Amino acid sequence: MRIARFSVGDDVGFGLIDTDQDSGQQSISRLSGHPLLAGVKLTGERAKLEDVRLLSPVLPSKVVCIGKNYAEHVAEMKDITGESTDEPVVFLKPSTSVTGPKDPVFYPEMSQRVDYEGEMAIVIGRLCREVPRERAKDVIFGYTCANDITARDLQQTDKQWTRAKGFDSFCPIGPWIETGLSLEEAGDLRVTTTVDGEVKQDARTSLLIHDIPALISYTSSFMTLLPGDVILTGTPAGVGPVDIGSQVTVAIEKIGELSNRIVTRD
Fold first, then answer.
1. Model pTM?
2. Rounded to an integer, what distance in angstroms lies between the CA atom of residue 210 and that of residue 214?
3. Beta strands 105-106 and 256-263: pairing type?
4. Alpha-carbon distance 131 to 218, whole Å?
5. Domain 63-263 has CATH 2.40.160.20
6. pLDDT tens digits for 57-115?
7. Hey, where are the domains in the chain?
8. Domain 2-54 falls in which CATH fold?
9. What is the pLDDT of residue 216?
10. Dmax over Cα atoms in the chain, in whole Å?
11. Beta-bridge partners for 266
12. Residues 8-24: what's their mean pLDDT?
């Protein structure tokens, strides 16, 4: 299933994405309540997808990010972030950095270089702590696309990553949550990032240094994960700067596409 969060005017809710097999037209069927709390219950209301606005599919209490999780990315960034480590590199993005598909990403005035980082994201489905590797699949609600936007110059000068990665709008997530993937399927998906239609990143999740069960087991060993929390699994090689006006699209096979434009604040 593909579960989205959407709005029509001031009305916000969750819905199930459907695609007509003959016409290819997509629609959204409203769900009753929050799918992480109430399960998937249809109300009978339905709308064309083009007539609603898709929002970030969840509002996480925290976004747990994994750095240096593709070997080629470690190599390209070693002058800024150092060498690879035996354990996952973990940092957080604030909930206020989360934004949705087609929402603007604001280029901060204090930065001279802002980079894209396309990633697959895990959406946690239940409260959990100290999850053993073999139980990781039990706490996954689904997967979505994410872009770990980074003010690269601030990351380099600060020597830690909170400010560089924590600006409002620096964590686009969407367009929906794909709940139908097995761990095996999610562990070998193509991830691409394009800037104004030009491919910049192209890799597979099978190249993750620390795989999905390892990331869930490790992060839950020292923090409680709540329903709706998001884990960004790391970005592949090919990160680079964007300009004001650039359109960045993160696409993951079997999940979807997340597009955002880089803008300045008025």
1. 0.95
2. 6
3. parallel
4. 8
5. no
6. 999 999 999 998 988 878 877 666 666 678 999 999 999 999 999 999 999 999 999 99
7. 2-54, 63-263
8. SH3 type barrels. (2.30.30)
9. 98
10. 55
11. none
12. 91
- Phi, psi values for residue 68, rounded to 5°: 55, 55
Q: What is the 3-state secondary structure (H, E, C) of the chain?
A: CEEEEEEECCEEEEEEEEECCCCCCEEEEEECCCHHHHCCCEEEEEEEHHHCEEECCCCCCCEEEEECCEHHHHHHHHHHHCCCCCCCEEEEECHHHEECCCCCEECCCCCCCEEECEEEEEEECCCECCCCHHHHHHHEEEEEEEECCEEHHHHHHHCCCHHHHCCCCCEEEEEEEECCCCHHHHCCCEEEEEECCEEEEEEEHHHECCCHHHHHHHHHCCCCECCCCEEECCCCCCCEEECCCCEEEEEECCCEEEEEEEECCC
